[in-house]
Structures are given as structure tokens and as C-alpha cells.
């Protein structure tokens, strides 16, 4: 089965390439700029058509949450218009699309974990552009899976785990918000879920499983708890450690507002696809171990 994925250097794209490398049943092709530029709609259909996908994975996005507040037009053109064109091109080729979205579509005032039936109401330009992207994808290609994930980390690109390990080297203490709750998710677990759901869709194309799903690491924490666990794990593996101080959102002003609660219920994905992402602490340990090993090897 040939998967064509948008983006080349993103966390999820690189994790997908790595996970598919050892599998005979998947051939993954990554398309990035300049041949596929989500901000240039005219590049999208030709690049996707030439790559001959059985299924398209729409993983590229404008992900700079604070910067998006200053560049709303670009964020919407990439995350909404561009995503819509990807889904439309896939439909014309006859391919389903798996599109990635975010917990930041919710406003965070809810109490428990959000389900797919809860009403999104984004607080940020990034969240609003991703919600508009969900609508554009669903309209352009009825054969879609929209996977909302959260707090993604990996050995690749920019993410919270890498930031904390870097800050720990020369800070005596890191102050981190303790009043925003969610589910840290390894990009490798997202990649595994994409491969699993792609195989399910391919094996049973008439199966009514298209729609919106939540897919995140099992277990919840806040950013401060996440930071503390990263650093304790790093210390246990011989890496950098520093203390973490709990602060509140008002002590850490940012351009974009983030939800106080963006926990995602993954029950629907589990019940339809028969799979649950591992506990976030287990997956995080593997990523920290790999980052420390790569650092020791000078990579
Ligand atoms: N990171 C997170 O915490 C979360 C991410 N998500 C969603 O998951 C998906 C994957 O995220 P993640 O892997 O972390 O993203 P990254 O930020 O790691 O990578 C984004 C990718 O998108 C590419 N890209 C950006 N703009 C364009 C463009 N105009 N045309 C083509 N490609 C472009 C980037 O290319 P280049 O390398 O050239 O810049 C990069 O390869 C996204 O849809 C994101 O919204 C959802 C929840 C959490
Ligand atoms: C670096 C740092 C961040 N923070 C806070 C700011 C913010 O509230 C929270 C997370 O910060 P970051 O900016 O690293 O993460 P952020 O860019 O908000 O991460 C989001 O990215 C997008 C793409 C998503 O889709 C989301 O699911 C989510 O993962 O931690 C601290 O309190 N102290 C710190 O030293």
C-alpha cells in the first residue's frame, strides 16, 4: 500500500517514515516544499497525482502556535485552504485521506476528557485554522479520517521534550505552567496509529469508519508534570536534570491563548480500530533515551 504524506521534516512525517521502513506492506513517500507547498494551491494536485497514492496522509501544517497570532492569513492558507486542496486532490485520485488535527480546537473550559461529540471553540488562530482545516477536508473528501492528537513530541523537529532537556543544561530551575492539562503523545504512537488505521481502511474500504477521532497518549498531566517527568527520566538515564517550579498561566504570558483542559477521550478510536496508544510515560522514556544516546554520539 502506497502512502503519500505531506511534509518532509515534520515530527509525524519522520516517525511515519521510520516506522514504515521495516514493513513490507507499506511504501511511504514524503512530499514537501518546493514541489508541494500548502500555501501555493497550484502545486498540490500535480505533486499528489504524480506520487500515485493509495491513501494520502495530510500531516504538514503551520504549527507555530504563538507566531500564528501575527500571521493569521498564512496559518489559514496552510492549515485550512491547503489542507482542503490536499483532500480534494486525494478524492480526485480516488484515495482516502488521513488528516491530522489538534486538541487546540477546544476552548478548554470543559471538565473531563473531550469526546468527538463535544463542540470545538478554539481560543487561538492556530486552533481556529486547524478547525477550519477539518471542515475543508471533510467537505472535499467524504473518505476522510480526521485524527485529533495532542502535545506531540519525538526525537525530531521542535517539541517540549527537546526544549526541557536543553533548558535543563544551564538553568537552576525551570518555571512551567501547572494549570493546563492534556495528553502528551509520542509521534511514533501517532505513526503506528496511522499505519494501523490505513491498513484497516485499505482492507475494508466500504466499512463506515470515516469521520473524526481523538488519538493521544494514555494518561494525563499538565505541562509542569510533563516537564518534571522528562527531567527525572533524563536524570535516571544519566542525562541533564534541573528542578521544575509550578506556575500559573498568568505567570507565563504568551501571544496565543491555550486551553486549560484539552484532555482527549480516545474511546472511539479504540472501539472502532481496536487499538490504544501506550501510556505517555513509557513512550516518553524511549524518546528521552534516544535523544540522550544521539547526543552522546554527537548527532
Ligand atoms: N506538534 C504538536 O504538538 C501537535 C501537532 N498536531 C498536528 O499534527 C500534524 C503534524 O505535526 P508535527 O509533525 O508536530 O509538525 P511539525 O511542526 O513537526 O512539522 C510540520 C511540517 O509541515 C511542513 N509545512 C509547514 N508549512 C508548509 C507548507 N506551506 N507547505 C508544505 N509543508 C509545510 C513543515 O515543513 P518544513 O520542515 O519545510 O518547515 C514540516 O515538515 C500537524 O497537522 C499538526 O497540526 C496536532 C496536535 C499536536
Ligand atoms: C518552554 C516553556 C513553556 N511553558 C508553557 C507555555 C505553554 O503554555 C506550554 C507549552 O508550550 P509550548 O509552546 O512548548 O507548546 P505549544 O506550542 O503550545 O504546543 C502545542 O503545539 C501545537 C502544534 C499543538 O497542536 C498542541 O497540541 C500543543 O502540542 O508550556 C512554560 O510554562 N515554561 C517554559 O519554559
Keywords summarizing the entry:
299 residues; alpha/beta; six-stranded parallel β-sheet; 16% strand; globular; binds NADPH dihydro-nicotinamide-adenine-dinucleotide phosphate
What is the N-to-C order of secondary-structure elements (H for helix, E for strand)? EHEHEHEHEEHEEEHEEHEHH
User: What is the highest CATH level, the class of the domain at 2-155 and 185-217 and 263-278?
Assistant: Alpha Beta
The CATH topology label of the domain at 2-155 and 185-217 and 263-278 is Rossmann fold
Number of strands: 12
**Termini, distance in Å?**
32 Å
**Which ranges are low-confidence, i.e. pLDDT below 50, for 5 or more consecutive residues?**
none
Q: Output the strand order for the largest sheet.
A: 2-1-3-4-5-10
CATH superfamily of the domain at 2-155 and 185-217 and 263-278: NAD(P)-binding Rossmann-like Domain
Question: Structural class, from secondary structure content?
Answer: alpha/beta
Radius of gyration: 19 Å
Mean pLDDT figure: 96
Number of helices: 9
CATH architectural group of the domain at 2-155 and 185-217 and 263-278: 3-Layer(aba) Sandwich
Sheet of most strands: 6 strands, parallel
Q: What does the model show?
A:
By secondary structure, this protein is α/β, with parallel strands linked by helices. It has a domain of 203 residues: 3-Layer(aba) Sandwich (Rossmann fold). It is 41% helix and 16% strand. It has 9 helices and 12 strands. The strands form 4 sheets. The chain has a 6-stranded parallel β-sheet, sandwiched between helices. α3 runs parallel beside α4. The chain is globular, with a radius of gyration of 19 Å. The mean pLDDT is 96. The site of NADPH dihydro-nicotinamide-adenine-dinucleotide phosphate has 27 residues, from α1 and β4. Pathway: Carbohydrate biosynthesis; dTDP-L-rhamnose biosynthesis. Its cofactor is Mg(2+). This is dTDP-4-dehydrorhamnose reductase.
